[in-house]
């Protein structure tokens, strides 16, 4: 809800929300003098939408919607409440896949992951206070994250994890040619890992909703046709993890069928924009994913890409 607070004689607006464990947290919107009525109406509309969607979360799961666990959704809510998705951050990986499947309204096997991958294609349009960094934003979820030690240990980390038995982790990713290279992200006062073709993946993000048990979070996710092609690439870039290879191919195949039905031709049109040096790898992935599809139209699309 929206509330007015007073600090050191200045009155300001905050949006109050619940984190993990129902710990109340404030998102600062600005002073009463600076925040106009249009911004307040926008914030009230966002809150109403979140409340309405949260009320229907259980029903959505019954109807086959993908729904992450409570803790990952709380982390995404913290990123949203600090304005990171509005500033240009994009959710990628399996949680983005779940959001895209929900957007299409299709039934698919439920994915299970404790990994949250978020990508920063360009410098984000925000300025954090000097005493707040990316790790601090993650901790506003109500969970306590620590950096994952780099390799070697003196190297800064682009990954954060909740200590203990939980496997919940967050990876901050940026475009780059050197897979896994750690580079600074100055506006978040942190570091991130380079991932090839990430700039292609997040070049044209779309709006989506992540529905959790206690949170409904507006996010940015990759355009589905770009997500399909990136999954085809990553499936063939892995060397030994067969489970992740199968998961990449399955996600690419399911979204390829939905995308081709919704916007015929978009996958092939987007493939034409892929850098030439990566097309051979994507063609191998397209051939493997085509064999998973019963949908003849989508299978034919992937086979045409594989044959180019």
Folded structure, characterized:
With 308 residues, the protein is α+β, with helices and mostly antiparallel strands. It folds into 3 domains: 55 residues, no CATH class; 166 residues, no CATH class; 86 residues. Helix content is 41%, strand content 22%. The strands form 3 sheets. Strands 4, 5, 6, 7, 8, 9 and 10 form a 7-stranded mixed beta sheet that branches. Helix 5 packs parallel to helix 9, helix 9 crosses helix 12 and helix 11 runs antiparallel to helix 12. The radius of gyration is 20 Å and the shape is globular. The termini are far apart. The mean pLDDT is 87.
Helix content: 40-55%
Order of helices and strands: EEEHHHHEHEHEEEEEHEEHHHHH
Parts with pLDDT < 50 across at least 5 consecutive residues: none
Q: State which percent range the strand residues make up.
A: 15-25%
Largest β sheet strand count, sense and barrel closure: 7 strands, mixed
Whole-angstrom Rg: 20 Å
Number of domains: 3
Q: Give me the oligomer status.
A: single chain
* Principal-axis shape: globular
Number of strands: 12
Cα distance spanning the termini: 54 Å
The assigned structural class equals: alpha+beta
What is the overall number of helices?
12
What's the overall average pLDDT, rounded? 87
């Amino acid at each position: 809800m929206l509330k007015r607070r007073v600090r050191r004689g200045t009155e300001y607006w905050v949006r109050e929300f619940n984190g993990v464990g129902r710990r109340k947290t404030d998102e600062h919107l600005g002073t009463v003098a600076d925040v106009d009525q249009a911004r307040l109406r926008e914030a009230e509309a966002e809150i109403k939408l979140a409340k309405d969607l949260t009320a229907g979360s259980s029903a959505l799961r019954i109807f086959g919607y993908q729904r992450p666990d409570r803790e990952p959704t709380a982390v995404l809510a913290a990123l949203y409440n600090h304005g990171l998705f509005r500033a240009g951050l994009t959710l990628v990986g399996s949680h983005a896949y779940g959001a895209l499947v929900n957007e299409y309204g299709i039934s698919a096997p439920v994915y299970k992951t404790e990994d949250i991958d978020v990508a920063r294609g360009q410098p984000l349009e925000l300025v954090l206070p000097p005493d707040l960094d990316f790790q601090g934003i993650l901790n506003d979820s109500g969970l306590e994250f620590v950096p994952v030690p780099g390799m070697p240990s003196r190297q800064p980390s682009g990954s954060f994890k909740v200590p203990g038995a939980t496997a919940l982790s967050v990876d901050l990713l940026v475009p780059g040619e050197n897979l896994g290279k750690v580079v600074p992200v100055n506006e978040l006062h942190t570091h991130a890992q380079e991932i090839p073709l990430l700039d292609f993946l997040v070049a044209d993000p779309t709006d989506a909703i992540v529905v959790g048990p206690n949170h409904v979070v507006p996010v940015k996710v990759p355009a589905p046709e770009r997500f399909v092609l990136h999954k085809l690439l990553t499936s063939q870039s892995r060397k030994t993890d067969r489970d992740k290879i199968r998961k990449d191919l399955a996600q690419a195949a399911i979204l390829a069928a939905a995308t081709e039905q919704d916007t015929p031709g978009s996958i092939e049109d987007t493939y034409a924009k892929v850098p030439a040096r990566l097309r051979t790898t994507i063609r191998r992935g397209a051939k493997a994913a085509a064999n998973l599809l019963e949908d003849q139209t989508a299978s034919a699309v992937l086979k045409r890409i594989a044959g180019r």
